[in-house]
Design a protein that fits this description.
- Helix content is about 40%, strand content about 20%.
- The protein is an alpha/beta fold and about 210 residues long.
- It has a single domain, classed as 3-Layer(aba) Sandwich (Glycerol-3-phosphate (1)-acyltransferase).
- Helix 1 (about 10-25) crosses helix 2 (about 55-65) and helix 5 packs across helix 6 (about 140-145).
Length: about 210
């Protein structure tokens, strides 16, 4: 059974504050690279998934750039185990069951509201921070096809590097998808190209 997102009047603002505080507390350098042309549309944020930090990173980007009501898909057993994700925009998905269709439909419904942002990790699992090629699950294309209106699709690459610093640096790269094909295969190809370009740009910083 789908567990829908909530935005608790206390926990949601607290999570927004915590995301900003935690990132400035733990990272020595923070850089955001990209241009977001706000067209007053709902936003689908597609990002790499390499750690427990990822939801916090997405919220930080949302607070500073996107400025929408934050939503994210999370495994049902994790939402039931930890009650707080549901109170800060998390909603459930149960992989390998028929209820996944309900979760995909709910995501499409969220993306009909221009005030909303939905975070998706299209590979559906945590992968190594060194992963450079991602395989999208088929549900990503289905969400776009059934969105019921226009939506801005943003690709995000969140990278961590030390270079010569004692504390790690956090580097956000993002870009809007401007292609005209919305199947999972086309989005996967475009995201992988974007991610490799982001890595190449980040590598150049070691020479600065």
């Amino acid at each position: 059974m789908l567990i829908k997102a909530r935005h608790h009047k206390f926990f949601y603002p607290l999570f927004r504050y915590y995301a900003v505080w935690a990132i400035h507390r733990h990272f020595g350098r923070i850089e955001i690279s990209g241009e977001f042309k706000d067209r007053n549309l709902p936003v689908l944020l597609i990002a790499n998934h390499f750690s427990w930090w990822d939801g916090i990173l997405a919220m930080y980007l949302n607070v500073n750039v996107i400025k929408r009501k934050f939503h994210f898909m999370m495994l049902e057993q994790q939402i039931r185990k930890f009650s707080y994700p549901n109170r800060v925009g998390g909603y459930s998905v149960q992989k390998g069951s028929r209820s996944i269709l309900e979760s995909l439909k709910y995501t499409s419904e969220l993306l009909k509201n221009h005030k909303n942002m939905v975070l998706l990790f299209p590979q559906g699992k945590i992968e190594s921070v060194y992963t450079t090629s991602f395989r999208f699950e088929s549900g990503v294309g289905r969400i776009i096809a059934n969105k019921g209106g226009q939506v801005q699709i943003l690709f995000a690459a969140n990278l961590i590097n030390y270079f010569s610093d004692r504390r790690p640096g956090l580097y956000f790269y993002f870009a809007e998808y401007t292609g005209d094909k919305f199947d999972s295969s086309s989005l996967q190809e475009a995201y992988n190209l974007f991610f490799k370009d982001s890595i190449n740009e980040n590598a150049l910083k070691s020479n600065n």
